[in-house]
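seq:
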Amino acid sequence: MRIQRLRLKGFKRFDDLTIDLGEHPARIVALVGPNGCGKSSVFDAFEERLKDVKGASQGSESPSFFSKFMFHSDPQLLSQQYNKSEAIQVTMEGQAQVVTKKTFHIRSAYRFTSKLDVKNISAQPDLLDDTRRPMSSIAIDSRLQENYERLLGLAYAEFERGTKPGNVVRAELLGQINEVLTAVLDVRVSTMGNVIEGKGQLYFEKDDAKEFPYQNLSSGEKEVIDIIVDLIVRGPEFDDTIYCIDEPELHLNTAIQRKLLVAIEHLIPPHCQLWIATHSIGFLRALQDQLAGECAVLDFAEKNYFRGAHTMRPVASTRAHWQRIFETALDDLVGLIAPDRIVYCEGRPDPDSGGGEQGLDATVYNEAFGSACPTTLFISSGGTGEIKRNGSLAIKVLSKALTGVELLVLRDRDVLTEAQRSSWVGEATHHRMLTRREIENYLLDYEVLSGYCAAKGRTLDRADYNAIVSDILTQDLKMGDITHRLKLLCGEAAFSNDGFKRALAPFVPGTAAFADLKRAIFIDPLTATPVTSSGIATAPVGLGGPAS
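struct:
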């Protein structure tokens, strides 16, 4: 089950917000933004819909908690009554448009169980009833003890069935928890305790410490245990569900945050969707890296979504968007976060008055590779005669300060032969050279121009194109009026030549020219394998290109 669209009208602080995830929504939906931007309000909307089938859990918030109309500055709206059906409209993928008891599973940000001390095991209600769930995003979520008792109940049920020895049952239950837990923390559950002996809590081991109780764990370790156990207990029943976790990074350092999100995604059943509200560095890095192909990021800081009617869609996975998103988490420290890879290319090295890039090549590369390689930054470093000197100097300096960052120098091929090109790229491991003459020979490729024209509702005639471009690999496309003629052929008389080239950059990805470009930049010429930012060569790739 996945959500395609959510509309909140007069709900909490939103006048009219529609979240549109498209017809094929991502498995992970990340709500990012600063405190007070409305992320938790989305989960309140889901909980309100859940009350239609489960009823209120631990009481219920009053209408004043949900309705913006009761506090609106417009006197005409102040008199409107809160209507849940109008305020919250959810559209789900496929035929599943009816909310059931398993549609949502929500964890509030107020998860805290300082200690476990179970004196006796009591009968638990059906998981789908979930009577102890928090009634809103500001309610305490203290279901760890219930989940612990359910684990003990599972062990007792297996004992009653008599089909497995006790040590096998114990190994299965603890093994499932520890498999995930040890991928995040350096602790393991050693035993589930013994209520009869007055040990009604989980016990752990770490380094040379054995059998220490849950209450001795740190706040961060307890946070991880709480989430992991909850997902393991509920996973089999909530197998077609929207899982919602508000600020899962509580009490955790950055490295653990990153590992935890990957573990959570692993625990969520395959037909489910995960919604998380976060502004943590570790979670953002996991979304940008390990989970990039699975996630849609909703940037609540992009504008004021509270006033007026707005439609929010996932942001494109480009370096510019990630820069803005990380500013939420880092504020003025965002400048300390370096890209994984810096490529020095030919072009005007002087920045504009605001410090921005002026070089055409770097601008095009950053646009073309923005989604495929969001942690790669292209920087202009001068013309052909300057690129080696300036780029090499930068590498000597920055390689000492930016450990773990791959630094490359990229040259145009110009009129060099293949032998001369091979000599340059073989001269140093950080040397790269285009296989085509220069950036124009990629931008003005027929496939790129055809894509551009198609987006404008036009068709590019191949014969007319061939009359202008005779050799896309080596022809000097900046000579004379070739660019101008191709621009007119595409129906763009108003553009300057450079403006036209910049407009073509988004249409390069997915073409054969793009595959050629990726190979020239990201494939180690000595080993013919893509190199990651850590400098570790990975397996060869085809036209899909190297890892970003």
